[in-house]
Specification:
This protein is mainly beta and about 425 residues long. It has three domains: about 160 residues, bacillus anthracis domain (Immunoglobulin-like, Sandwich), CATH 2.60.40.1630; about 110 residues, Conserved domain protein (Immunoglobulin-like); about 110 residues. Helix content is about 5%, strand content about 45%. The chain is built from four helices and 29 strands. The strands form six sheets. Strands 11, 12, 13, 14, 16, 17 and 18 form a seven-stranded antiparallel sheet that branches. It has a six-stranded mixed sheet with strand order 1-7-8-4-3-2. Strands 21-22-23-26-25 form a five-stranded antiparallel sheet, with no helix packed on it. Strand 25 and strand 26 form a beta hairpin. The longest helix is centred in the first third of the chain and has 8 residues. The two termini are about 20 Å apart. InterPro entries: DUF4179. This is DUF4179 domain-containing protein. It comes from Gracilibacillus oryzae. Keywords: Signal.
C-alpha cells in the first residue's frame, strides 16, 4: 500500500474550514466526544483516539451565553491537538458564511487563543478544522505547534477572548502528557550539501504516526523550497501529516544563516519494512511550467488512471453523478510526492471544451471537500458541478517532473526498534 502526504502548512496561522460531513445522527454521536477526532480529516487523530492515545479533558467554560468545551487532547512530539465544541444559546448567524469567504469563516467561530506554558506566554502556529453540527453547535479541532520545546507533564494555559464574534473570557488549564511512544535517538548525524546543513536528532513513533525531529541550517539568501519525504525500503513515500508549521527558527546575523528545528510527522510504515530513508528535495512546482493531463470521467470505464507525471498517478475507482454535485473516489499512487501535491489542490473537472468547470472549489483542501477513507490512501472528493453519463466530464491534473533530490543529505534509518 502506498501512503501519501496530505497537507503541508507554512508556519503561520492557517485555517482549514472543514465541510467534511458527519453522519446524519452527528448531534447524537458527538455526545460521545471522541468522535470529533474519529470523524475528522486527520488520519493520525482518527487512529490516536481509537488506540486510546488521547487524554479526555471535558473542561467547559461559559461566558455571554457561549459554552466552549475542550473534549480531548492528543500530544505527540511538540504538537498538540484539541477536539472542541462551541455551543450557543442562540442560533449562529451565517451572514459571513459564503463560498468566497470560507477562509475567514473559522475566525468568526473561534478567535486565536493566548497560550501560556509554565506561566510564560508563547508564540505558536496553529490550524483549525471545524464542522457545523447544528444552528447552535460547532465541532472543532485546534492544532497547536509551539515555537518552543514542550516538556512532558507541564502546564498549558489557553485563553480565548473572542468566540463567535462575541467577546468574553474562556480560560482553560491542563497538564500536557505525551502519548506513549518509542524513540530512536541519533547522534553525530550532521550532513551538508551546498549551503544547506541537516542534523537528524531522533525518530519517534506511537500507534498513530512517526515523528522525525531534525534541524536545518541554511543561508538567509537561499530561497530554495526544501521539502522532505520518508521513503520505505520498497520505494513508497509515507503520507505526511505535519510539516513546515512545526518549525522553531533562530536567525544568526553574524554568519547570515537561519537555523530551524522541525518535527515532521508521517504515517506509520507497513509491517515488514526494515528501513526508512529521510529524503530532502527541491519542490519542482516552484521552478517549472507544468503541463496538464486529463481523462474522461466515465463510470463505464472504471478504474481510470490519471497520470501526475514522473512522481506517480491517481487511480479513480468510483464516480457518482448527482443532481448538484459529482463525487469522485480515488486512490493515491504517488511514489515520490512533493509537498504542493496532496489530495484536494491538484485535481479539477473540465467539460468537453477543456474548460475548468469546478473553478477554485477545491484549493489546497481549504474547503474541506476531500475526505480520507479508512487509514490508507483512498479519498473521496466532491465537486459542485455535475455531468450526465451520456456526456461525462473530464478529470484533470498537472504532470509533475521528478524533483531534484539532495542525495548527500539523505539519511537511512534502520527500523530494528519498530
Amino acid at each position: 500500500m502506498i501512503f501519501r502526504k496530505r497537507l503541508t502548512i507554512i508556519s503561520f496561522v492557517i485555517i482549514l474550514s472543514g465541510l467534511v460531513i458527519f453522519p446524519a445522527n452527528a448531534q447524537e454521536e458527538l455526545q460521545d466526544r471522541s468522535t470529533i477526532f474519529e470523524n475528522s480529516i486527520y488520519r493520525q487523530l482518527m487512529t490516536a483516539s481509537k488506540k486510546n492515545l488521547t487524554e479526555k479533558l471535558n473542561q467547559s467554560v461559559t461566558d455571554n451565553g457561549i459554552t466552549v468545551t475542550l473534549n480531548e487532547i492528543y500530544y505527540f512530539d511538540n504538537e498538540l491537538s484539541y477536539s472542541m465544541t462551541v455551543e450557543s444559546k442562540k442560533k449562529f448567524t451565517n451572514e459571513e458564511s459564503t463560498e468566497n469567504n470560507l477562509i475567514a469563516e473559522p475566525f468568526r467561530y473561534l478567535g486565536r487563543p493566548h497560550i501560556k506554558y509554565n506561566g510564560k506566554t508563547i508564540n505558536f502556529a496553529s490550524s483549525l478544522w471545524y464542522e457545523k453540527v447544528s444552528d447552535k453547535k460547532v465541532a472543532m479541532i485546534l492544532k497547536v505547534h509551539p515555537n518552543t520545546k514542550i516538556s512532558n507533564n507541564e502546564v498549558f494555559e489557553m485563553t480565548f477572548n473572542q468566540v463567535m464574534n462575541t467577546k468574553g473570557y474562556w480560560n482553560f488549564k491542563m497538564p500536557v502528557k505525551e502519548a506513549d511512544n518509542n524513540v530512536i535517538k541519533i547522534d553525530n548525524a550532521a550532513k551538508k550539501e551546498g549551503d544547506v546543513k541537516l542534523e537528524l536528532h531522533h525518530i519517534k513513533w506511537n500507534d498513530a504516526e512517526v515523528s522525525v525531529n531534525f534541524t536545518e541550517e541554511r543561508s538567509l539568501t537561499n530561497a530554495d523550497m526544501v521539502a522532505f519525504n520518508l521513503i520505505t525500503d520498497n520505494g513508497d513515500a509515507l503520507e505526511l501529516f505535519t510539516g513546515y508549521q512545526s518549525s522553531i527558527s533562530q536567525i544568526n546575523q553574524e554568519d547570515n544563516t537561519v537555523t530551524t528545528e522541525y518535527f515532521f510527522k508521517f504515517a506509520l510504515p507497513e509491517d515488514g519494512v526494515s528501513q526508512l530513508t529521510f529524503s530532502p528535495h527541491i519542490d519542482a512546482e516552484f521552478y517549472q511550467t507544468l503541463t496538464k493531463s486529463s481523462e474522461k470521467l466515465d463510470p463505464k470505464e472504471l478504474p481510470i488512471t490519471l497520470s501526475q507525471g514522473e512522481i506517480g498517478s491517481l487511480l479513480i475507482t468510483d464516480i457518482e453523478y448527482k443532481d448538484d454535485k459529482t463525487i469522485v473516489t480515488y486512490e493515491d499512487h504517488l511514489k515520490y510526492p512533493i509537498s504542493q501535491v496532496y489530495p484536494g489542490n491538484n485535481i479539477w473537472l473540465e467539460n468537453n471544451s477543456h474548460k475548468n468547470v469546478s473553478s477554485v472549489y477545491i484549493v489546497r483542501n481549504l474547503l474541506g471537500k476531500v475526505k480520507p477513507v479508512g487509514l490508507h490512501n483512498t479519498y473521496i472528493a466532491e465537486f459542485p458541478v455535475t455531468g450526465i453519463e451520456s456526456s461525462p466530464l473530464k478529470v484533470a491534473s498537472w504532470l509533475y517532473p521528478y524533483p531534484e533530490v539532495f542525495e548527500k543529505l539523505q539519511y537511512t534509518i534502520p527500523l530494528d526498534g519498530f
